[in-house]
Design brief:
Helix content is about 30%, strand content about 25%. It is an alpha+beta fold. The chain folds into 3 domains: about 15-190 and about 280-330, no CATH class; about 350-455, Copper binding periplasmic protein CusF (OB fold (Dihydrolipoamide Acetyltransferase, E2P)); about 470-533. The strands form 5 sheets. Strands 15, 16, 17, 18, 19, 20, 21, 22 and 23 form a 9-stranded mixed sheet that branches.
């Protein structure tokens, strides 16, 4: 996902994950595919001469939660990412569900700008195929679409792209944009070895009045053909070391070899854009291809769809995707047919975590001491309130295995989930205890997840989940203690050496004295013998 691995294409790529993107063209049921973003490479480091991620960037809108560290059905969100993306015009919130096959449990991808994640269950018939899933929300521009950024000759898509370009030609200039923001996202050295880049950028921008037309000039430059009709710039999997190329590699790509893969085109495009004083960055993730007519809104992602492209900032509109990589049709067409997507579980209205205080297996009811709960994506913590549970239709799960109600016992720590229509008429409130009081006395429950003994033993200071920092803190403290012991030992060495020599000297005196006494005794004995004789 960070473009650090081998870039060779596999002839038979295996699917990594599938996703359902709730995005359609306005007023239709035609799917509108979106690229999925993982990381932003925003800072040009003059030491390493390449673009790097920068968590200290005050304008950083990158959202990279760890879905595996969030309890099932609970949420993590950071709305500040929307503010930092600095764009609200033509924006809407869309939802996406991701189901992982071979993607890492902690990996997170979603359309830009993402701000919300919720781990969800995988329907039982698909649990052997998919390891985990999550729901995400992104604040997406109407102008962002995979159709907008394919380098294609399809006349319908070309016409579709032109509509976006016309809207962006009306975008304001950068005069009113935060100066610090502009300085950060346009930083690029233009002297020395970079002067040819600046000269090329000036030639491409010549006569172009709007930002979008300068962007298109760069795209067209990479798509240009020679007098024989052959592409001047070509796609190549192995132009150099994998990952984001450094400046020397990019200069060689731009002015000599003219062969590279997505990271080369993306980074070179940002070189040129920043030389034109246009705020831009490299992003990595996955390109999205709509290959299926049977399952609208579903997309499958393979290894060869990992990708890098460019985002350009437009005032009011925010960050807009552009893909200047040439010849990426191979990645758009996977030789492997898409599989059957998993059944989508409905969005949970309520999910509550706590301890079972009583169970009636005959009436199929129970009582739950709620510690925290989530209602319509609003989370309430530090709750200590008992609530009845109606388990007549509930499925009971333990260690991913469906079990009878008799497995549910007093003292079990559980997660209960409800999709009930009768709860949808209630609205979230500021106070969780007040909301629970208004909800039905016996909550209709659809699923109960019993926490295993192993998981229950991970509780820390009464919390219902293991503190992920606990093992780290333990080893840090252990390391500190060992370091302190070594420091004390080093400081004690002179004292120990002094005492050892002092003890050795004292022992030497004692031995010498004993030796003297022994000699004296021998002399006395010798004299005494002579006198006797």
């Amino acid at each position: 996902m960070g473009l650090s691995g081998n870039n060779n294409r596999n002839k038979n790529p295996a699917p990594l994950f599938c996703a359902h993107i709730e995005s359609y063209l306005p007023g239709s049921d035609i799917p509108n595919p979106l690229y999925l973003t993982s990381y932003h490479f925003t800072k040009f480091d003059t030491t390493t001469e390449t673009f790097e991620r920068d968590s200290l960037n005050k304008f950083n809108d990158e959202f990279v939660p760890d879905p595996s560290a969030i309890p099932l059905f609970f949420t993590y969100k950071d709305s500040s990412r929307i503010r930092k993306a600095m764009g609200t015009k033509n924006k809407k919130t869309i939802e996406i569900e991701v189901y992982k096959k071979r993607l890492s449990p902690d990996a997170y991808i979603a359309p830009s700008t993402s701000f919300f994640v919720q781990p969800i269950t995988v329907e039982k018939d698909f649990q052997k195929e998919f390891s985990s899933g999550y729901r995400a929300k992104s604040y997406v521009s109407d102008l962002n679409s995979a159709y907008f950024i394919y380098n294609t000759t399809n006349p319908e898509i070309v016409a579709f792209q032109q509509q976006r370009f016309e809207v962006l030609r009306k975008a304001k200039g950068y005069g009113d944009i935060d100066k610090e923001f502009m300085k950060y996202y346009t930083f690029f050295p233009v002297n020395g070895q970079y002067r040819p880049v600046k000269e090329l950028a000036d030639s491409l921008a010549n006569g172009k009045r709007t930002t979008i037309d300068k962007v298109l000039a760069i795209r067209d430059y990479f798509l240009a053909r020679n007098e024989l009709g052959e592409q001047i710039y070509k796609y190549a999997d192995n132009p150099g070391i994998p990952g984001l190329p450094g400046a020397s590699k990019l200069l060689y790509f731009l002015f000599e070899s003219k062969k590279g893969y997505c990271a080369y085109y993306a980074a070179a495009t940002v070189f040129l854009l920043r030389s034109m004083n246009i705020p831009s960055r490299v992003v990595t993730g996955f390109l999205t291809v709509d290959r299926s007519d049977k399952n609208k809104g579903w997309y499958w992602y393979y290894e060869d769809q990992s990708h890098g492209w460019v985002q350009v900032y437009f005032p009011e509109f925010g960050w807009i995707d552009f893909d200047t990589t040439v010849g990426n049709e191979e990645a758009e067409q996977s030789p492997t047919p898409d599989g059957t997507p998993p059944m989508q579980p409905p969005n949970a209205v309520l999910a509550a975590n706590g301890i079972i205080t009583s169970v009636d297996t005959l009436k199929r009811t129970a009582t739950l001491q709620i510690a925290r709960f989530i209602f319509k994506d609003v989370e309430y913590e530090r709750i200590k309130q008992e609530k009845g549970l109606d388990l007549r239709i509930a499925n009971i799960w333990k260690d991913s295995i469906k079990v009878p109600l008799t497995h549910l016992q007093k003292g079990n720590e559980v997660m209960v989930v409800s999709y009930a229509e009768k709860l949808k008429s209630y609205s979230p409130e500021k106070d969780g205890a007040s909301l629970l009081h208004k909800l039905p006395a016996s909550l209709p429950i659809d699923e109960v997840y019993i926490k295993s003994l192993k998981d229950a033993q991970k509780k820390n200071d009464g919390n219902d989940q293991e503190d992920p920092m606990k093992p780290i803190t333990y080893y840090l403290l252990l390391g500190v203690y060992i370091l302190l012991a070594l420091i004390l030992f080093l400081f004690a060495i002179p004292t120990l050496v002094y005492r050892w020599y002092k003890m050795k000297r004292s022992m030497a005196k004692v031995i010498k004295k004993m030796h003297t006494i022994r000699i004296s005794q021998q002399a006395f004995y010798s004299i005494n013998c002579k006198l006797t004789d």
